[in-house]
Queue: 3 jobs
Job 1
Amino acid sequence: MADALGRQVGSRVAPSGAVAANRLGLSTQIPAVPVYLTDGRSRKVRVGKLQIQLKHVSPKQLPPGSPVSTAVFQASQFLGRDAVDDHIVALLRDRLTLAQRHTLLRDARYASDWMAAIARRTAAGDHASDPGDLHG
């Protein structure tokens, strides 16, 4: 629904860290009001019983890249550098397809150093299991 709202008004929309962590299965916390980040204006939207909040952020907080990569980076930021351990990396490897892990690695250039390291750890070993990918 948030993506549809973004398309409707021509804004980029991405799940906040709490929403992304929950969607990726990295957190069991379910936000009472899901918050999505946007480069458009802040507002609350209600559809039936569901209410979501769109929160304006600077374009720097919505880097280019795939929606999955953005969700991983937002979730990582929400959890914090110290909480993203081997268990979280293993969960990401399980939940992301091979193609999504390759895209995450490519999109790591838009992330901070510590989040780029998470992307590298998540994608580690994929090239050996995919002989068709010659570009690493």
Job 2
Amino acid sequence: MPRFVRYLPNLLTYFRLFLIPIFVILMINPSRQMVDNAILIFIIAAITDFVDGFVARTFSAVSDFGKLLDPLADKILVMAGLVMLVAQRSDLDGGPWVDGWMVVIALGREIWVTGLRGVAASRGVIVAAGNAGKLKSVFQMIAIVLLLLHDRPLSAIHIGALHIPLSWNCQFVGLNFLLISLFFSVWSGFEYTWEILIATREASEPPSQKD
């Protein structure tokens, strides 16, 4: 395997971390153009998440360091997006683009899981992201993009010859995607807790007990 390919997943993760402060700066008292630029930055950062995972699996470039750093970068990106959305005030109803309680649930889950993974890592146990956690990340990122689009209308869905008229805006759809992501957040949080408790208990057992 070329040396560059082996390190590419981690390089993409570093690049994602580099984009986060740019996104945050753009979302401080933003104009419409700045929000559009922030959307582009966020989408690029989200794409690097999927690309680095694909490269790591395809070329067997998975590392223990990457297993820890990649989900941490995802958490920082998503939390930056949600916090900056709470800070915005809607022209539609005057409220925040995202309600604070949603961010509290999402942030609480991430702190809990990150703390557990840190304890597990100190005991030599590495737990990679499960399917529920991956679904949570996908729904969160889609929700954040839709919420950044905010008041843009979704007038219709076209599927072949099927035409479904809509009266929704991106804010409404984004909030529903975020609610779905919160379900997967809580579910995957329980999964992580159970898996880490089991793994750390097995790792701490003497060899005679494991046999």
Job 3
Amino acid sequence: MARALIRLRFFTDENVPDSVARYLRGRGHSVYRAKGQLAERTPDQVVATVAMEDDRVLVSQDKDFKSQTYQQPRYARLSRLALVGPGPTLRDAVREHIHLIEAQGVHRHAHGGRMIIHVQVGQIRIRT
């Protein structure tokens, strides 16, 4: 497996499959898991705050992370990789789009700001 040019920092929510975390680690990225770090069923706002305070990209599969809550000023620095689709397809979706995800991470690192990426097999949407 090829290594990434830049090491990104991810924080995976408890619903993200282990295969996604393993894949990102295999590329050389730093991955912290909510499983084992936070109590089970920790509220999404707490998960988002932990990721943001540690300057990590939150990886989640929750549709509710798209809600207006995360557009509030206190979440202005939150970067997120939103995974869309059935669990078994998520690693493949990340793998398919990893070069764009990493390129966006390089851009974020160089220019600041945040990134919001929605990924599913065959499709990627990027917002900054």
